[in-house]
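SAMPLE LOG
Freezer: B-3
Tube label: C17
Construct: single chain, 109 aa
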Amino acid sequence: MTENYEIVIPKLFGAEVKKDIAVASGARKRLDEASFFEDAALFTVNSSGNLFLNFHWLYAFAPVFKDALEKNTPFRFSKDYEKKYFTYPIAEWHAHLAGIIKAVENLLA
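STRUCTURE (predicted):
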């Protein structure tokens, strides 16, 4: 199914620019354990050193990762952790890097 969409970008003084884009459909990727771990980011660290824990990508694996983090780090999570985003500045997480790595290894085992 390919549909064309028209994007209208307003310019100053009332002129418009039109841009057509085509949206091509392809075969949907099958989600299995191997492809899941290829695409999922368990955590990210930005250029400021902030650690972002990404439970929302983990689906059924989220409880395993949460439990491993709570066991190996001082991080604690609320009951609705799967719906929230957790951010830790580098000053809070860098001393616990070994525990974070252990939690990731536990998830992959």
